[in-house]
Amino acid sequence: MIELRNITKVYNPKKRNQFTALSEVSVTIEDGEFVAIVGESGSGKSTLLHIIGLLDSFTSGEYLLNGQSTVGEKESALARLRASKIGFVKQDFALIENYTVLDNVMLPLYPIKASDKRKKALNVIERLGIKSLADKDVSQLSGGEKQRVAISRAIVAQPEIILADEPTGSLDSKTGDEIFEIFRELNSSGITVIMVTHDNRLADQCGRQIAIKDGRLI
Ligand code: ADP
Ligand code: MG
Questions:
Q1: How far is residue 16 CA from its own chain's centroid?
Q2: How far apart are CA 106 and CA 104, in angstroms?
Q3: pLDDT tens digit string along 19-40?
Q4: pTM score > 0.70 for this model?
Q5: Domain residue spans in the chain?
Q6: 197 lines ligand 1 (CB under 6 A)
Q7: How confident is the model over 74-132, as pLDDT tens digits?
Q8: Which CATH code, of 3.10.20.520, 3.30.230.10, 3.40.50.300, 3.90.45.10, is assigned to 2-217?
Q9: Which positions ≥6 away from 208 have C-beta within 8 Å?
Q10: 4 lines ligand 1 (CB under 6 A)
Q11: C-alpha 89 to ligand 2 mean position (Å)
Q12: Can you tell me which atom of ligand 1 is nearest the CA of 47?
């Protein structure tokens, strides 16, 4: 369970160009939910997702993950939590272009010292329908294929939560629908899915929408 209590995020807090990206955001997301985060560009969606994913800190407030406060935890402890519980699909795929598909997907398995890395990665890419691309460099793939690699990497360590930042944003609508379908299947298998999207049609198919405007939930 994800519990955010009065989360405020100020960028550059000590500088003149400080900017309040989130103001007093409180939200609870139960295990197994499928949540869309919607809002205009610049409203704070990515900031919120990064905080939930323990990829960014916040200025004030409290974040409980499975009942445990993340405030004051060392970076190494947060990294362990992230590696074991959270899969992140970043906005621009964030894949290593000159690595093969398989090498990209295996990456999250090193910090958790998993056994049978190759086999686990192969199983996941098979599930996502890209097993035949295993030894191709990512730079040779289409957008939809890259997104499948990014999702494979996000789920290979069997996280409880998947966070995706506009995963269909750069895809044509047919490919976007296929990618959305993958998230739906992952959610059906019990994983909590939280997806930032501009696409109202997709947001409407999620279990719940969290709307954000100027850093506040509405
Ligand atoms: P969204 O994902 O909804 O487009 P973001 O969460 O990326 O919005 O950003 C929210 C606001 O915070 C934007 O106005 C953005 O310019 C600002 N912002 C994001 N990152 C930084 C940063 N590192 N320093 C200062 N302002 C930032
Ligand atoms: Mg964003």
A1: 31
A2: 5
A3: 999 999 999 999 999 999 999 9
A4: yes
A5: 2-217
A6: no
A7: 999 999 999 999 999 998 889 999 999 999 999 999 989 999 999 999 999 999 999 99
A8: 3.40.50.300
A9: 33, 34, 35, 36
A10: no
A11: 12
A12: 6
Return the structure tokens found at 201: 């049609």
CA-only gyration radius of the chain, Å: 17
- Which atom in ligand 1 lies closest to the alpha carbon of residue 44? 6
Ligand 1 centre distance from Cα of residue 215 (Å) = 9
User: Residue 21: which residues within 8 A CB-CB, separation 6 or more?
Assistant: 9, 10, 11, 44, 47, 215
Q: How far is CA 92 from CA 3, 88, 147, 150, 151, in A?
A: 27, 11, 9, 9, 12
Q: Please name which of 40, 45, 38, 52 lies closest in space to residue 2, comparing C-alpha atoms.
A: 52
